[in-house]
Amino acid sequence: MLNKCIFYKILFLIFLIFSCNKQIKENISPKKHLFKVLSPENTGVKFTNQLKEDANHSIINYIYFYNGNGLCAGDINNDGLTDLYFVSNQGENKLYLNKGNFKFEDITKKANIESLSDWNTGATMVDINNDGFMDIYLCSVSGILDFEGRNELFINNGNGTFTEKAKDYGLDFKGYSTQSYFFDYDKDDDLDVYIVNHAVHTNLSYGPASHRKKRVGLVGDVLLKNTNGKFIDVSETSNIFGGPNGYGLSASIGDFNNDGWDDIYVCNDFHEDDYYYLNNQDGTFTEKMSEAFSTISRFSMGSDSADINGDGFLDIITLDMLPEKESIIKQTEGDDAMYNMQKQLKKLGYKDQISRNMLQINNNGSYFIETASYNHIEDTDWSWGPLFADFDNDGFQDLFISNGILRRPNNLDFRKYVSSTFKQYGSDNSLKWLYKSLDKMPSGASSNRIFKGNSQSFEDKTGKWIEDKPSFSNGAIYLDLDLDGDLDIVTNNLNEKATILKNTTDNSNNYLSIKFNYKPSNKEGLGTKAIVYSNGLKQFKQLYKTRGFLSAGEGKLHFGLEKNVIDSLHIIWPNNKVQKINDVSINTNLTVDYKIDTTPYSYINKKEKNFFKRENILDFVHSEDNYDDFFHERLIPNRVSIQGPAVAIADIDNNGFEDFFIGNASGKKAKLFLNNGFSFKEKKITHIEQDLLYEDNVATFFDADGDSDLDLYVGSGIELLRRKNFENDRLYINNNNSFEKSNNTIPNNFNNTSSVVAYDYDQDGDQDLFIGNLSNPNSYGDKPSAYILINDGKGNFSKDKEFNLNIKATAATWSDINNDGIKDLLIASEWDSPKIYINNKGNLKPLDIPNHLNGLWQSITTFDIDDDGDLDILLGNWGENTRFNEVSSDAPLKLYYSDFDSNGTKETVLAYKKDNNYYPVNSKDELASQMNIISKRFINYKDFSSKPIEDVLTYESLKKGKIYKVETLSSGYIQNNNGNFNTFIEFNYQLQLAPINSFAEITINNKKGLVVSGNSNKTGTYHGAYLALKGMFLETDNQINQLSNYGIDAFNGQVKQTGVIKMKNKNLFFVLTNNEAIKTYTFR
Amino acid sequence: MRKHIRVIILLNLIFISCKEKKASINITTNHIHNTVDQLTKIMIHDVFSPPVASRIYVYPNIAAYEVLSYNNKSYKTLSKQLNEFKTLPKIKLNNTLNKKLAALIAYMEVSEELVFSKQKLITYKDSLYSNWININKDEFNEAKMFGKEVANHVKLWMNDDKYIETRNMPIHNVLTKDPFSWVPTPPAFMPGIEPHWNKIRPLIMKSADQFKPEKPPTPSFEKSSDFYKELIGVYNIGNKIIKEGNTSEKLNIAKFWDCNPYVSVNKGHFMFAEKKITPGAHWIGICKIACKESNSSFEKTIYAYTKTAIAINDAFISCWDEKYRSNLVRPETLINNYIDDNWLPLLQTPPFPEYTSGHSVVSGAASEILTKIFGDNFKFDDTTELPYGLGVRTFSSFRDAANEAALSRFYGGIHYMSAVKLGLEQGKKIGHYINNSVTFKNK
């Protein structure tokens, strides 16, 4: 017995020793990262942006106290090595000479670059006086608290010393400056400057959006024009906004629409929209945010632009502060708190904004498609500076993001603490009290992030390329410090030493680094574009130094090259002349001199000759009522009341041309338009007009009573005041082209109708109907019944008792998929798989389809997409450009439906999987707004955060409820393989960017295909709107084009349906969008 | 002299406790005041809206009162007097029952059911309980049993008041084009709170609209209209007070009676709610002052609290019924949209429609109750707001305080004069009705 015991003890000891060994090994051999952190002792760069807080200087009385600072780079002594200038908010800025091999010398003292301003911000190196030596322009905040000073210009004397001369140049701007952006907006070959300034909260900054048109001193951004070396404020005449609401934190300069003139994207924090200024080529700008962008960051901070997909147009990234970690999300005030506020802001003229990063993919310079969630880069926490660059020299742009805030002011427990303990002590004392309470604000240390790009998507390399170690990094730049051909990274950190990351990319890939020697007045050639053609791929870059956040890099363009040859290099100079270089050697640091005999560059507009012509032929505006589903059921995943407009198309009057019925939302009249081949005439129908209180969701023309004319069935949705009588479906019988409502011929349907399709499914010579419902208007989680109405031949309808289906139907169609001459029934649904029924003369038998297809299906149709001669089943899903981008059959989204708080009302709670647990999507406050019990169960947000759904709602209450699942959000098709339907193929990524609501057949340039449309405004602020499906023309599964290339305006709303109607001499293409006017185009 | 007495009492206590094994648990009015204060504190922490707060004050008090009035010659039970409040089941009581103790226990047991931060109340309760157990376990247990019994009776009745059902009712929809309809106000733009409060069962009133006030002046932009004059009146008084500066008496009045638990403060990078007591809590505070000033007995204190809380409860139901009926826009909205986009009211506009003024109705009702109990011309120093950083104000009577409280909403820029005048009238009617139709004291 004793022996045995000893034996086990020894065994245990051995085990311990082994396991210790293993741990030690892991600890002592540090993971090798692509970027090596260099120690300050070795480099000599010991700079720290050290913050000094006191009761009178803190985040309590200056909102941007924790924004940190940046740095700028340039070769100040022309020795070929790039030197670094670090900016400290309050302390001493430092200038370091690059001595090669990552050794730096601090020359701050003798260089005489001491700032006289109290609060420094961004800096940029630029040769302002064209003497061949880099000068430094430094921004400062003055006029807030006791901050004094102004922006400063340190002129390089050429001998390692500087003299401050901002006043001489007219650059002594005084205000709340963030950063300066030097560029030549008026093409006079000298550098002008756009200075981003920031607002602070005032009564007026919360005023209407139109306040931005005012010009407010200190706060408003300014554009300064260089006139013979003197900078003159031309903001007003150039149409630059300067209002009290411009919380400018960064800008990106570039020729976004490829017209040869540089444009400006300005990032604004808080409720103010970002600005997108297009250069009018006459010294003025036009702000086009609303036209070109659908989805923008709310708390926009740093930004960058680069062509990441090689299409020759600059894409844009803006950063925000959406946390990624579950515990932080639930302890942080998020967009959920903004639902009500957003409505107010909209009234005040602001755009809907969402607090997350945005990746804006430029489409031919005319509009941007937002894809951050698709790329999994939407939530990188408190993020400041993004940098696009090719860090591994593989020819594709990667992405670095600097992260971290000293303390999180939007921590909910902190706010609650302050709220319940704060008292009116008088303004001085309350300030002191608040300052003391800052300790209670949790740290916002967060790892910098790096993502590898491949021109289509990004892959997270944090922890592999760089350390996954929380920090407070603000400004960052990339540059080749050791001239070895790869890009190193330098970050300025708050209260920590600056970091130099040495890039250790090996020589298996290649590079080209280009410096320009343009005209003397812009020697560095800021604004110059370069296109590298290599191995059939194109890389396009434009030289601007000021990027990311509060920082500016060196004046070079860096190209990584996977292949070891460059076919050709095109340089487009700021004056839009092009210089083509064919024999470019790789792996060199090239300097290109401007040659006078260059030819003008012609910017090619990729748009095909307009195939479609915009012609307003129909006068109809769909106008939603004010019903808000979230006011009634606060926890549902999306609204179900905005399904319209209803539409039915058929030749009513037998003149050979199809007529048009369009139903409206509750309170607005539906309209019937008769088509005479040339135009449409509205025909007033008394019975339909009388029913204006109904919400028209869907409609179809069909012969109900067998008298050979077409009658009309309209499926109803949710009425504004929830009067049940106005939520029933209706049948209007056609009597000599006048429609009369029939009574008691169809069963009541008080559910939220989503589909009605007619077909003689039992082949008895009359038209029967399939009716699908999306929801029970009183309880979202209830799965309503879908049913078939059998026609008795005289227009009396009764339900087919053999067909029983409870489903959240969204769309349905009859289509013959097995080639037996009889149409089969196909149904799309949410929180379920699509349902396919093979029709054997009225006997509907479910067809086996692939497993794991539970989705949020929005549309269904049949089309031969793989061009093999049979019909495939096309399915529109929610898409992958969503925060639920990790959904799979192993990690399905779950919707729990039960009366969780036993108060007699059932709730739905949506949950997602993360780290092997399910967490509620909704915040504590949202859950509590529907379930009082949550407030009692969790007093603090911290207690609530990281609690899986079982703990939040209790295991018992979950057990008694229903669970619905979504296993895929990808749109795609079930392939018809000689009559077998056992493979689901996902569409190409362009069709995954938003929900697909409709497929419509069309022939463009003799090519038969489908117009794919969709988008959704149905979700709350957790998602924001889904508006990235701008309208696609789908020919085959790998032949997909933007419809805008053919002359159709990008779809920026929630499109219900598109389609084609034949006219006498032309065709009409229409786009019906929820809450918008109909748009029509003609084509031949 | 006083010191001497205290020493003697103390000595006596020691003496008695040495001599007899079990002392009696001594419950004083301070116990009840402290417990009410504790409840107020937790309510501030949990941020309850003014109507919900009125409900939280009233039921614990009723439970305590029912304990005291059980088999009581001087005080009459409220059962059958309050709507749907049934008679307590017959309970056999020993002569030894410590009724004050049982009343306090009933108070805490019901309170616990009503707040979010239950644990805070339980901690408070447990420390008292363990103390009492130490003094006299039997006495405590007996009181606890009775206190809980009454508490349960009250809780069952309370839970039937439609409060739970109203939690799931729709949010007040404000998307309207009528310029005179209420819309959320800056800076937090909160949705209108408790739009369904009129569905809560009143305690005395027969229905929520029993004291429906007359309509406010017809909204109009016509300069000669009464409404427009009142609107301009709000704008002008605000500007006048600002001119007068920090020493303005009107400013002090406005601030003193703010009692808005929703004030959002914007500091640097963050916005937080600056919590305050509700108008109901302020009048509960005045009731406490009156009880203390008049050296009221334990029984009278509970009686005064209960009656005041009942009046406040019904006042909120009546007022909220009118608020969402008339759904009138706040002066801040109209002034910003049509007169001066940079104008700010001195007080932050609370998140619900304008007419009538909640503070006016509540003050009218509570002051009539207190006047009836403690008499008119009851002069007092109102120290209620001291813990919240505001000063002391002196009033010659409860009605004097009510008049000032009502007027403060006009000075604060959050109400038109009609809401103040007619609101006060509405409240007084409710007060009189309660004074006349409920019997607390047996004659």
Automatic annotation (TrEMBL), chain A:
Keyword tags: Signal
This protein's record includes keyword Signal: yes
PROSITE patterns found in the cross-reference section: PROKAR_LIPOPROTEIN
Domain of life, source organism: Bacteria
Pfam families attached to this UniProt entry: FG-GAP_3, UnbV_ASPIC
Domain ASPIC/UnbV residue range list: 525-591
UniProt-listed SUPFAM superfamilies: Integrin alpha N-terminal domain (SSF69318)
Signal sequence bounds: none
Protein name listed in UniProt: CRTAC1 family protein
Organism: Olleya sediminilitoris
Organism placement in taxonomy: Bacteria, Pseudomonadati, Bacteroidota, Flavobacteriia, Flavobacteriales
From TrEMBL, chain B:
SUPFAM superfamilies assigned: Acid phosphatase/Vanadium-dependent haloperoxidase
UniProt-listed InterPro entries: PAP2/HPO, PAP2/HPO_sf, V-haloperoxidase
Pfam families with a match to the protein in the record: PAP2
Domain Phosphatidic acid phosphatase type 2/haloperoxidase residue range list: 320-426
Gene3D superfamilies cross-referenced by the UniProt entry: 1.10.606.20
Designated name of the protein: Vanadium-dependent haloperoxidase
